[in-house]
Sequence to fold (159 residues):
Amino acid sequence: MDLAAVARRLEIADLYAAYAACLDADELEAWPDFFTEDCHYRITSAENYEAGMPLGLIYATSRRMLKDRVSALREANIYEPQRYRHLISGIAIAKDEGNAVDVEASLLAVRTMQDGAMTMFAAGRYIDRAVRAADGWKFATKLVVLDSRRIDTLLAIPL
Fold:
């Protein structure tokens, strides 16, 4: 592996770490900045993914749609205050094209409610495509494939 490929791997690992930190710090207004303008973001179950079903629990086809989602979370949705902790591991570049990479990673999200109760909220994997933009790496596609088809109705905050 050449030095440029090693540098890309470290940059991609930093992208995932910053992504998780943004969500966990409830800095949702910055979340769309991790994506290209014409991005695709989808959350689906493993069962639906394996069956080739294209729609998801959350489905967005642009950064503008992600910004709208954040606005809805902040202004329209009513839900009990909660915190998330995203654990991302096993980051593996499946395809490296220099300025674009296909990446898979494992995801675990723990939710802590206001009373301190903690639950494993989501487990699954990311299947992503990241591209190098002028201001750093961005997700062109982020597919969140959840291991369980049992999805909490509080799926409000992005994964």
